[in-house]
C-alpha cells in the first residue's frame, strides 16, 4: 500500500542549515546542481536501523498489526515480526527523511533562482550526461518551464514519466532489454521492473531507494498516481516538484560504468 508523506520532528540548528544551503548555492550552477543530485537521498540501511531501534523502544506499538488501505481499494495487513512489517516501518522512516530533505531542496532552489538560475542551466546538466534521450530532454525542458512558471500540476505530470524514460535509456545502453516478450505479445517493463534490473547492474542504491520511497507503491506511489490520474491538484506541491527535479539530477550523476555488470 502507498504511504503518505510524513512530517517528523528533526532538530538541526538553523546555522547548520544555512551553512549547508550556502555551501551549495555559493558554487557555480553546474557544481551546485551536481551536488544537489548527489545529496538528499534516502539511505536504506539507516531507514532499517531506525525502524529496528524504534521497534525496540516502543515494543507494544511494534506488536500491533498495521492495516493500510491502498489506492486500489485493498486493505493490506503488516503483522509484527514479518519482513513486510519491517519494510513498512523502514519506509515510514525514509519518508520522514525525504520530507525534511524536500524542505532543504525548496530553500536551495529558491536561493539559486534568486541568484539568476535559468532553465538552460538545468537542462545543460542533463545534456552533458549519458542516458538522457533527445525526446526526454525536450519534455524535461517543457516540465522545467512549467516549474519556473509555478505550474506545479503541469511540471509534475510532465517530469515524472521522464524518470522512467531515462531508466530505460540506461538499460538499453548496456544491452538489457526493456520489454518482455511472451509469444506474440510484447510488454514494456514498468518502473519497478526497470529498477529491479538496474539493481542487478550495480545501480547506486541510495538513488534506487529514494525512487522507491517517492515513486513506487511501497512509498508515496507518485508514479502510479500520475499515470492513472489519481494525484490530486493540491498534492502537486512545490516540494513534490523539486523532489522530482532532484531525482532527475540524481540520475545525471550516474556514470556509465555504474550501469554495467
Q: Helix and strand layout, with pairings?
A:
Elements: H1 14-25, H2 29-38, H3 44-57, H4 59-62, E1 66-69, E2 75-78, H5 83-114, H6 119-127, H7 134-148, H8 152-173, E3 179-182, E4 185-188, H9 191-199, H10 205-215, H11 222-227, H12 238-251
Antiparallel strand pairs: 1-2, 3-4
Helix pairs in contact: 1-5, 2-6, 2-12, 3-5, 5-12, 6-7, 7-8, 8-9, 8-12, 9-10, 10-12
Describe this entry's structure for a reader.
With 261 residues, this protein is mainly alpha-helical. The protein is 61% helix and 6% strand. It contains twelve helices and four strands, in the order H-H-H-H-E-E-H-H-H-H-E-E-H-H-H-H. It has helices spanning 14-25, 29-38, 44-57, 59-62, 83-114, 119-127, 134-148, 152-173, 191-199, 205-215, 222-227, 238-251; strands at 66-69, 75-78, 179-182, 185-188. It has a two-stranded antiparallel sheet. A hairpin with a 5-residue loop joins strand 1 (66-69) and strand 2. Helix 9 packs antiparallel against helix 10 (205-215). The longest helix is centred in the middle third of the chain and has 32 residues, at 83-114. The radius of gyration is 19 Å and the shape is globular. The two termini are 32 Å apart. The model is unreliable at 3-9 (pLDDT under 50).
Write down the overall mean pLDDT: 91
- Counting helices, strands and paired strands, the structural category is mainly alpha
Taking the alpha carbons of the first and last residues, their distance comes to 32 Å
Number of helices: 12
Amino acid at each position: 500500500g502507498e504511504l503518505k508523506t510524513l512530517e517528523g520532528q528533526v532538530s538541526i540548528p538553523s546555522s547548520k542549515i544555512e551553512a549547508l544551503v550556502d555551501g551549495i548555492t555559493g558554487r557555480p550552477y553546474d557544481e551546485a546542481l551536481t551536488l544537489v543530485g548527489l545529496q538528499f537521498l534516502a539511505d536504506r540501511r539507516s531507514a532499517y536501523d531506525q525502524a529496528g531501534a524504534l521497534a525496540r523502544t516502543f515494543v507494544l506499538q511494534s506488536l500491533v498489526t498495521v492495516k493500510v488501505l491502498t489506492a486500489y481499494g485493498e486493505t493490506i495487513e503488516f503483522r509484527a515480526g514479518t519482513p513486510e512489517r519491517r519494510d513498512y516501518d523502514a519506509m515510514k522512516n525514509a519518508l520522514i527523511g525525504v520530507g525534511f530533505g524536500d524542505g532543504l531542496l525548496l530553500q536551495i532552489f529558491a536561493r539559486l533562482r534568486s541568484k539568476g538560475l535559468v532553465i538552460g542551466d538545468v537542462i545543460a546538466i542533463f545534456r552533458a550526461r549519458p542516458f538522457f534521450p533527445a525526446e526526454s530532454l525536450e519534455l524535461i525542458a517543457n516540465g522545467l518551464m512549467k516549474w519556473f512558471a509555478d505550474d506545479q500540476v503541469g511540471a509534475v505530470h510532465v517530469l515524472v514519466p521522464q524518470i522512467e524514460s531515462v531508466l530505460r535509456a540506461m538499460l538499453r545502453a548496456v544491452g538489457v532489454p526493456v520489454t518482455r516478450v511472451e509469444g506474440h505479445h510484447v510488454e514494456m517493463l514498468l518502473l519497478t521492473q526497470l529498477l529491479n534490473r538496474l539493481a542487478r547492474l550495480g545501480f547506486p542504491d541510495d538513488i534506487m531507494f529514494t525512487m522507491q520511497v517517492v515513486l513506487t507503491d511501497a512509498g508515496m506511489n507518485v508514479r502510479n498516481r500520475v499515470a492513472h490520474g489519481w494525484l490530486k491538484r493540491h498534492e502537486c506541491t512545490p516540494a513534490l516538484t523539486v523532489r522530482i527535479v532532484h531525482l532527475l539530477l540524481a540520475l545525471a550523476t550516474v556514470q556509465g560504468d555504474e550501469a554495467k555488470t
